[in-house]
Amino acid sequence: MKAKLLYPCMDEIGEAVTWLDDIGVLLWVDINSCILHEFNPLTNCYSNHILPTKVSTIVPTQKKNEIILALSGRLVLYHLIKKELITITEIEPNHPNLRPNDGKASPEGRLWLGIMHQTDHQNTGSLCCIEKDLTIRKVLDQQCIPNGIAWNKAGTRMYYADSGKGCIKEYAYDPEKGEITFLKIAIQVPSKFGVPDGMTIDDNGFLWVAHWGGFGVYIWNPLTGKLENKVKVPVPNVASCTFGGKEKNQLFITTARAGLTDEEKVAYPSSGSLFVANVNTSAGINHYPFITH
Which fold has domain 4-278? Predict the structure, then answer.
């Protein structure tokens, strides 16, 4: 499978690609440029939203045109039409060198959010769970670059990638308590494939993982650790992916220019753009809403 260019942009770090099925639009961010992108693939209509700080995570809510964004130091509620931004809770406000990274809501509506150091990636990060009443629990510490998260269809397993450790771990998931129990390293990514970044899951339980430095989205079977297939992307740093489109048979993929040499930027001029691949798979629910009291 090969991905093709869908929307040319020059994102330093294109991340958090999210399909909003109720309004038929695709959202993603450029973390360092403080931009929220909005694109309708049916009409090719594009717009963007300029935010006050770095932005790394997009999570739907139960309301139309309303999303949660993780900005530097806080979670905000944002309305796509009204362009209203309301802070709902602070995140590590006393640690300016820490920022949110990847995050997703679990099937029952909690928000799981990775926190990373902006320059020192040696076991300085964490994985947090934000409850429906907005209390924050640190679930894992000693993380490097906390990244992609996905749950199986039954909601009993959580898969989580730490890019700095080059692996995807499998946890038993307790939806009543919002607790995880480590089971195994499901996938240890060989360094020749780059490192695991954002990811999503299909109805067969296969993980579709964006590989930073790996020129593609790799399809892994977490039960066996086997690489099943790959969606080739014509740029090195692939950052996030999600299923979407009218029939849920399109894989949308974000990429990045960060980390490339000047020579690589010339060799791969589409780096930082949005790509798409038509896939023959049944997509699971890629984005659950964050449910607050």
Answer: Neuraminidase (2.120.10)
